[in-house]
Amino acid sequence: MTSIEGLLCEVTPLLESQMALKCAEELFFGESLLLCDHSNEAPSTSGRHSRHSESHRHSESHRHSESHHSKDHKKGKKDKGHHSKDDLGRNKQDGLQNAIASAKETVRKALAEGSSLSSAANVSQNVLDELVKMKEENALIRKELNELRTLFENLETGLLWTCSDAGFRCLGRRLLILGDGNLSFSVALACARPEAEITATVFEDEPSFELRYPSAAEMLIRLRSLFPRVKVLFGIDARNLPLRWMGRFDDIIWNFPHPGGKTNIRKSRELMRAVFESVSRIIRDGKFLVTLVRGQSGLDHEAIVKRRFLKRGRLPAHRLDSWQIAYLAAEWNFSIENVRQFDPRLFPLYSVSGYRNRDQVFHNSFEAELITFVLSPSLNTLKAVKLHEEEQYAVKEVECFHELRPYFKHDLSILYEETTALGHWESVFLNLVREACGSLVVAIEEVEHLRSFAPNGLPNRIYRLTWQAWRKPLSKALCNMLQEELRSLITSAVLQRKLKISDVCSSTKPNIETKTEKPSAGGEAADEDFDLFGSSDEEIDEEKERIKEERLKAYAAKKALKPAGVAKSSVILDIKPWDDETSMEEMEKFVRGIEKEGLVWGGGKLIPLAYGIKKLQIICVIEDDKVSVDDLIDHITEDGADYVQSVDIVAFNKI
């Protein structure tokens, strides 16, 4: 049912125009009569109104007679049911008639107020003037709101810069920005740091840049308008920065590096390794800031958010399937000074582009990690690294690890010659390690399941050393060097102090006295009567003495021709591929193709891991004096980077 309010909403907007109301009058009334319970007592005396009143009276009389006839005809029926039906129909009709009557009254009042075309025109003009005035006021309000929004954004950005914990706030004055895709970061930084001298670089040449980033034209214009404070250079490869830039910049920034094409961990690592080498040649006391998407660095993101970088009793959560940024940086003496979350609100104009090598924004910046690197001194000896560490960290808690520093594990095999005092000599060995390494060796544990006995019956123990330096990061090559130096120091200490232990994996073996063996039975038949251990009371026979000397010399010469005992070890390796697309046949072929003197490859098998990925478990036998397991693993991982993600030692047993 149509309500009065609904019709009023339809009619009321028409009250401003007299002509429209007159048309509505004709449409509503015309020459036909309307049935209505209520007459409109408008002041009009037109013929049309008289006809309407007469029609109303006739309708009322006719309806009354019909109602009386209906009552007589339906006598005997219940009054309640009859009245309910009749009242329902009348209520529906009365509601519509009341709505029409109310609309008629509203229209007639409007017609009475505006009786001339001129007044209607004036009303329309006033309305138009009012609309124009409201539009102008609205435009002013919008302008003020935009200004207020800009002021608020500037205030918010200023507060964020003030409250931010270092990072971009503590940058130097001369800044180099590497690989700034669409140049939006350079524009944002130039606005945030008006005092800074910025050199923005792009990998592509200018024509290629314009084709790849068509939306960056405005950014380029803005940067060139800030010349000479801001310079834009095209065709700059971050992997090969000019040596003439040495010492020219205070800090270097690189946001969201990418090797191009489909995401590939190996290519990403190669890119970062080359860039660290390049940056190390031109930076001295400054900082190198790199922003990576969450998970790329390999660091524990939860520790970064909570600012908890020290872990007691557990190793750092460095992910293997990542760029392993801390380990790559350590190869070129870069140390992670700090890691914090990258806040894109500091740079409102910055849009991270380059998604799939196109002018397309990706939205991973809100959980990104801003990593600050500083250059550390180049040290190559165990003593130098130990002294450098103890200058700042003289005492470190045992088994306390730093999340932002690389760590490495190395095994050391020790033979104990005095089995009755094994506990004592084990304590002596551990003291030797602490004396030589200080706090560089954070943890030492025995690998109990690798316990064994040497061929001479001496107990063999394998100790796993965990290396980590907090002040100067250790690279894999440096840690291997320190491990070999530690072995040499242990060997020297054993010889000098005449200790009842030996490092069976060291290149220098301690001298062990052996009993003199009797000559072999090769020439005994002719001289069975010769008593080598004759009594001292017997007269010395010069001829027998001469024969004895000759035979001893012959025995010594024969023994010298026999091959000396060679210390060997059986090693089982787990070699893991990058993904399920890696050819395991090619990977095994590559591994077996590694040839070294003293290395023999044995059987191998493929073991399922998960999601269709398998690992290669292979056994090899090495001569301890000729082959280092650490060097072998490095050879596999570095030369086989296309296939191999990581290599683990499953078992290490002496033969």
UniProtKB/TrEMBL annotation:
Domain Translation elongation factor EF1B beta/delta subunit guanine nucleotide exchange: residue ranges: 568-655
Feature: compositional bias, Basic residues: 70-83
CDD domains, A to Z: EF1B (cd00292)
Family annotation (SMART domains): EF-1_beta_acid (SM01182), EF1_GNE (SM00888)
Biased composition (Basic and acidic residues): 52-69, 84-93
Biological process annotations from GO: rRNA base methylation
One GO CC term, this protein: eukaryotic translation elongation factor 1 complex
Pfam families named in the record: BMT5-like, EF-1_beta_acid, EF1_GNE
Molecular function as annotated in GO: guanyl-nucleotide exchange factor activity; rRNA (uridine-N3-)-methyltransferase activity; translation elongation factor activity
Residue span, Elongation factor 1 beta central acidic region eukaryote domain: 532-559
InterPro entries documented for this protein: BMT5-like (IPR019446), eEF-1beta-like_sf (IPR036219), EF-1_beta_acid_region_euk (IPR018940), EF1B_bsu/dsu (IPR049720), EF1B_bsu/dsu_GNE (IPR014038), Transl_elong_EF1B/ribsomal_bS6 (IPR014717), Transl_elong_EF1B_B/D_CS (IPR001326)
SUPFAM superfamilies the record matches: eEF-1beta-like
Keyword annotations: Elongation factor, Protein biosynthesis
Region described as Disordered: spans on this chain: 40-94, 510-529
Family: Belongs to the EF-1-beta/EF-1-delta family.
Protein name as annotated: DUF2431 domain-containing protein
Organism: Toxocara canis
Taxonomic lineage of the native organism: Eukaryota, Metazoa, Ecdysozoa, Nematoda, Chromadorea
